[in-house]
Amino acid sequence: MSGGKTIVTVRGMPGFWEVAEDLGDKVVVVRGPLRLELNKDRIATAAQAEEPLVHYKPEVFNAPVAETLDLHGMTVEEALKHLESYLDDARAAGLTKVTVIHGHGSGKLKKGVCDWLKARKLKFEGGQLSRKGFVSQRVYLA
After folding, report:
1. What is the rounded distance in angstroms from the CA atom of residue 100 to the CA atom of residue 76?
2. What is the CATH number of the domain that holds 81?
3. Residue 50: inside a domain, yes or no?
4. Residue span of the structural domain in which 40 resides
5. pTM exceeds 0.85 for this model
6. Residues 73 and 52 in one domain
7. Residue 128 burial by CB count (10 A; 0-12/13-18/19+): exposed, middle or buried?
8. Are residues 128 and 90 in the same domain?
9. Is residue 63 part of a domain?
């Protein structure tokens, strides 16, 4: 299997993943901010998928999902796409609280993230505080 644009499915996890690196008997797959190293026997090319992915059951989803998402360097539009996907994955993995890092910069990213969270009625509060203000938000999923 080669890296690049090879698209695969991972048994027990929803969605399609891109192969980022072939490590011999293992492979690194990525989707948005998620990056996993898996044994090759856990993956199948998209064409080989055993069943439609809509049959995925959240209660058996056990992929490791980081408790922190770093959005530094992204435009507001890019960041919100990653944020939405990440929060879906975090909920499915059973996380109840995550940290979203937006940094200082011009303040546009922080405002975009906070406005997006408010519009979805998600509970959140300032996370890490620096002399310029909050650089992250704690988001509660439960």
Report:
1. 13
2. 3.30.1370.110
3. yes
4. 7-57
5. no
6. no
7. exposed
8. yes
9. no
Tokens at residue 19, please?
A: 């192969």
What separation, in Å, do the N-terminal and C-terminal C-alpha atoms of the chain show? 39
Beta-strand ranges (E) seen in the chain are 7-10, 16-22, 26-31, 34-39, 43-45, 68-70, 97-101, 123-126, 129-130, 133-134, 136-140
Q: What is the pLDDT along the chain (142 residues), one digit of tens a residue?
A: 443 456 666 666 656 777 888 888 888 888 777 778 888 877 776 555 544 433 333 344 445 788 889 998 889 999 999 999 899 888 888 889 999 989 888 889 999 999 999 999 999 998 776 776 778 899 999 7
Do 133 and 88 have their domain in common?
yes
DSSP H or E stretch at residue 76: helix 76-92
Asked if the structure places residue 1 within a domain, the reply is no
